[in-house]
Amino acid sequence: MQRRDFIQISTLSVAGLLAIRPDCKGTPPLKGIAIIDPAGVAGSNQGSSYPSEATAGAAVMLRESGLSFEVVNQTAHFSSYKVLILPDSVLFSPIFTKKIETYLQQGGAMLASWRSGLTPDGAQFATPAFGIQRVGEAPYSPDFIDTRNSEIGQNLASSELVMYLRGIEVRPSNATVLAPTLPPVVGTDHYPAVTENGKVIYFMHPIFTQYHRSAPRWCRRLVLNALDRLAPDVAASKTGGIHPGIVS
């Protein structure tokens, strides 16, 4: 067993144990963040793979940052959590869409990435809550997230951060672009990398799968910055983890 696989399994096991036996840590775990595993959502086509690469990446990312979380499926009571993370491949059936919309209407917050939020056929976003439209596959890969003068670039070097895995090009309808994507070809148009619409933040790249495969620190920092925008009290609850200094 490789070290990273061991960490993933250990992380998810500890998260589940704390959900059942909060006395294991002395105090009940904060019901702050839930990661919705794609394998636990009907129509996401993840088969029996549990956890998915994206879920494992999200779990390791949060654990390294000292944040409490639980891994859940579509049957969970979402109202128990302040923030839902939908990593990379959580497709939205009509029933699941309605459940998510109800959760958001009740004041919840959501961080989603890549194909999460699309209809099962991948053609479009299932709910206007994202405030964006799918254009198609990103025209370039790799490409770069531009954090210069970005609203989500805190504690990151003012730079262009490479994203190795191909994303989805989106067009904002109501959403605000927090950071653009820069193509590797000079003179070509950029497209949104990170968008925000109310309490919904979306990353166009499979950021959690990328973290699982190569663990670039800027991916973790970007996610923490997004969580801080969505639920500052949850992001501030860290029990340890990364130093808040500049990540390059």
Automatic annotation (TrEMBL):
One of its GO terms (biological process) is carbohydrate metabolic process. Residues 62-118 form the Beta-galactosidase trimerisation domain. GO terms for molecular function: beta-galactosidase activity. SUPFAM superfamilies: Class I glutamine amidotransferase-like (SSF52317). InterPro entries: Beta_galactosidase_Trimer, Class_I_gatase-like. Transmembrane segments: none annotated. It comes from the Bacteria. This is Beta-galactosidase trimerisation domain-containing protein. It comes from Salmonirosea aquatica.
